[in-house]
Amino acid sequence: MHRYRTHTCGALRDSDIDQTVRLSGWCHRIRDHGGVLFIDLRDHYGITQCVADPDSPAFKDAEKLRSEWVVRIDGRVRRRPGGTENPDLPTGQVEIFITEIEVLGPAGELPLPVFGEQDYPEDVRLRYRFLDLRREKLHQNIMTRGAIVDSMRRRMKEQGFFEFQTPILTASSPEGARDFLVPSRIHPGKFYALPQAPQQYKQLLMMSGFDRYFQIAPCFRDEDPRADRLPGEFYQLDVEMSFITQDDVFAAMEPVITGVFEEFAKGKRVTKGWPRIAFADSMRKYGTDKPDLRNPIEMQDVSEHFRGSGFKVFARMLEEERNQVWAIPGPGGGSRAFCDRMNSWAQGEGQPGLGYIMWREGGEGAGPLANNIGAERTEAIRAALGLKAGDAAFFVAGDPSKFVKFAGLARTRVGEELNLVDKDQFALAWVVDFPMYEYNEDDKKVDFSHNPFSMPQGGMDALTSQDPLTIKAFQYDITCNGYEIASGGIRNHRPEAMVKAFEIAGYGEQEVIDRFGGMYRAFQYGAPPHGGMAAGVDRIVMLLCGTTNLREISLFPMNQRAEDLLMGAPSQVAPKQLRELHIRLNLQEE
Question: Which of 69, 89, 341, 489 could pair covalently with 454 via S-S, beta carbons 3.0-4.6 A apart?
């Protein structure tokens, strides 16, 4: 017999009755039923019920066991007594009558329980992550993550992609976030950077003739953490293709992502034939570039109905050309209590309030706005929004570039409060035609709005003849249920166009050569048209596991302060290590 086990704790069935077996695992739960001890023994594969009564030679040893002790149990498989079967367990028809127990690893008093799924403070969960990972839900999430990655890898290879690994130590690059820097011992005063993404390397692979690349790539960004973004590191399905258009990327990747979602959707519907939504339309209809399409509400510009109206606040705003009034329909929200609740919510978001109109039976509009603009305009708004008696509409006004984020939040709030959001689906879409540039108010300059290596629509002609803020790029995102889960673009593969694009954003030609020398040189020697994307593995797993926190699908995450409480990182290092790296600390006194 094997030293530790003949079977796993998830293996035994009716066919094993009367066999003598050996199991090893953790004491998941111990119950004393009138002098008969029941031990639920757990390992990675499942749980088996083990029984010791006073006649068992191992009874006295069984009395000493405590939760999470690691033990070896020998015994005979028998059928559970009638009425005690557990249909929720694969092993629920049988149990083991214990004949021998060996304690392999006793456990101290637990800082958090493993049995059950009750909430526990996050700092405790992260400090004792090895215990947290024993809990059923989290353990299953991690296994699901592995299965999702396997599915991605299989589907990419079926699409004709080849898997490559790119370097982890590389050069610092302006990818949009801070780099993690690694000091060089051999080259004093110089630093490597951990890659924010394999962007340049995957483009260089296209220069090298490899045609279709993918990688489950670790990426590193020194940015502030939040629930849907892990601090420090994350993983992405990184993709690049040669001799393709934007449509070719969509045709290759849509089946991969759709297939992964369908495989793990647990019965939820998954969008087929994804809609393509222009960035400008997404902002106007949904107030965000990552719309949750499970929410049917679409905002509309209703400025004309308030221009010159009796509602002077909006009418005066509309005298300035850039200002607009947007309506957020609220089907079924036509009660005073709900409208007042939305108004209070808006004030809690730092707004002066949220104007509204309610429609009564017979189609009559009610509320301060309706009283000020009159019945004719109120009816025109109702007709434009497709609303009926019992519905409401909410209004935001001013410069759309300033109120669009709040409008998007209000749309989400209305949809959730009125139960309009269909929670039984994964609503996927492409968002396309992103602006190439945006104006940076802090630095008073034009900046890249997305990926700096993307091809502008119109190419070199657009870069030389158009207002930079009107240039669209061949850039696209995949969105799902209000999250951006992928981003990509067709690349700017002509060196003169690359230099011009960076010049508009304030980079001189020599700076481009210094910072992107490898790629700049590669473009001089025959660069194929190419493009790709990167899908966030962590966010996809988070959605498919039905959680909103990435810590619930990651093995050893950091906390909100970017600290690894389990391993004690970041930590101080010895003076000798600093001397070897030619580094002297200049810390501010506390």
Answer: 489
**Has residue 440 got a pLDDT over 90?**
no
What is the β-pairing status of strands 437-440 and 445-448?
antiparallel
SS3 443: coil
Give dist(CA 317, CA 339) in Å, integer.
Answer: 23
For residues 455, 458, 460 and 462, what is the CA-based torsion angle, rounded to 10 degrees?
Answer: -110
Report the alpha-carbon distance of residue 533 to residue 487 in Å, rounded: 5
3-state SS class at 70: strand
Give the DSSP letter of residue 472: B
Residue pLDDT, tens place only, 501-557: 999 999 888 988 888 888 889 999 999 999 999 999 999 999 999 999 999 999 999
- Torsion over CA: 54, 56, 57, 58 (sign): negative
Per the CB < 8 A criterion, the answer to whether 565 and 123 are in contact is: yes
Q: Which long-range contacts (CB under 8 A, 24 or more apart) does 35-44 make?
A: 37/62, 37/63, 39/65, 39/73, 39/98, 41/9, 41/71, 41/73, 42/9, 42/134, 43/8, 43/9, 43/10, 44/8, 44/139
Strands (E), 433-529: 437-440, 445-448, 475-480, 483-490
Does the pLDDT of residue 259 top 70, yes or no?
yes
The answer to whether 73 touches 21, Cβ cutoff 8 Å, is no
Average pLDDT score over the chain: 94
Taking the mean position of all CA atoms in its chain, how far away is CA 196?
Answer: 16
Q: Length of the chain in residues, anyone? A: 590
In the sheet that holds 530-536, the strands lie side by side as 162-163, 212-221, 232-242, 530-536, 483-490, 475-480, 428-432, 276-278
Structure tokens at 168: 């982890």
How many whole angstroms from its chain centre is CA 404? 22
Span 460-500, pLDDT tens digits: 999 999 999 999 999 999 999 999 999 999 999 999 999 99
> Could you tell me which of 288, 176, 189, 186 has the C-alpha nearest to residue 222?
176
pLDDT digits (tens, 9 = 90+) for 98-124: 999 999 999 999 999 999 888 889 999
89 phi, psi to nearest 5 deg: -110, 135
What proportion of the chain, given as a percentage, has pLDDT over 90?
A: 86
Give pLDDT, residue 519. Answer: 86
Residue 354 to residue 347: CA distance in whole angstroms: 8
Residue 131 three-state SS: helix
Other CB atoms within 10 A of residue 57 CB: 11
Q: Alpha helix locations (H) across 208-323?
A: 246-264, 279-286, 303-306, 312-317
Q: At what angle do helices 246-264 and 136-158 cross, to 10 degrees?
A: 140
Cβ 564 vs Cβ 556: under 8 Å: yes
pLDDT at 226: 66
Give the integer Cα–Cα distance in Å for 437 and 111. Answer: 51
Q: What is the structure's pLDDT at 590?
A: 67
Kindly report, residue by residue over 267-300, the tens digit of the pLDDT. Answer: 999 999 999 999 999 999 999 999 999 999 999 9
**Model confidence band, residue 90 (pLDDT cutoffs 50, 70, 90):** very high
Token pair of 13 as six digits: 């069935």
